[in-house]
Here is the input.
Amino acid sequence: MRPSDQLHILFKKYLDNSCSLEETQRLMNYFELDEDRELLKELIIDVLEIQDESYETDAAVAGVLAKVDRDLFVQIHTTYTTAGDAPTNTNKTVKLWLKVATVAAVLAAVCTGIYFFNQKSEELPAVANVLEKEIEPGEFGATLILANGRKISLANASNGEIGRESGIIISKSADGRLVYEINEKVFDPNASNTLSTARGETYQVRLPDGSLVYLNAASSLTYTASLIENEKRVVKLSGEGYFEVAKDKKHPFIVKTNKQEVEVLGTHFNISSYADDEVEKTTLLEGNVRLYAAGSSKILKPGQQAKLSEGKMQINETDTDLAVAWKNNEFVVESEQIESIMKMIERWYNVEIVYIGEKTKQRFSGKVSRFDKLSKVLEIVESTGEAHFEVKGRTVYVSK
Here is the structure.
């Protein structure tokens, strides 16, 4: 088999997420060479033609390579939709474009940023050697605050019924999530509950209407027992949550944050609304949602993400897997600055982050398990050569 044929097979395996660690590294190393840009172009053309023969491949490849040349990992669909004779955008084509864009960017990592992934511990520098005590990852837990002010630590609560209030039976299921049942005879619809996770905690709750909510670390969800306000189901979110909303055409589901309101009927979506983040992100996986912010409203479609910053909203196609990676117990980043990565670490490992000297301007992309201990995660990032860490107690010092 010719080397070019082997590379072609390897490239397809990468698009199918079936590459091994060694194969991924080999692919990256190969395309660091400028003279191999034409082969990269041929590979992308083959992928586009296999997926859909209606693609205008010249415009498509030009779009991908232009994005790489400008050191961007973002929204390849922008080039696609601005090509004069390109076919109409669909959810299928967006998925393909995003995948090809990511591959192209990763293969050009020497120019665009640093790519890291979960490597074997023996290949990594020994950050753990400077740790006074190993810091474990976060865990399943939260605090439930009832309307009467009673606080229940859910990490320590036994399975089964954990409380009764205002006609509501609150139970902890065998898989650890919180479940509500309503006794209509003595039900007080205005009794308000708050479910909150500290740093280093994550939790799930099954709301009285059947909707399922996952809370990320350092987040809270506030809601009344009935959820109903003015014929709408209403919850208030601070931090990050993933929602699987039960369908109820008579009662739209509203998520309120400090900056916006998100209205849905039945759908799956993720909202990241941390107070210390400049940008609030809403990502839609299924259904349709309407966003209200800064005196205007916009419709979000599946596969799209809305970014709200300083009263301005921008909507782009996105890889939804990135937005919900935390729910699947992974850190997955794409062209993120060091500050974004360290915020994830700070919230999940319950540590303080201190920067020493000038911050690296490199952007990072990669995937790491949230089950790993802190030292392993820091070692993986440090192995890029673009950041250095020292850990004292629960404080992480970050330098170039």
Notes: Confidence is low (pLDDT under 50) at residues 51-99, 105-112. Residues 91-107 form the longest helix (17 residues). Residues 139-318 form a domain with the Jelly Rolls fold (CATH 2.60.120.1440). The longest strand covers residues 232-244.
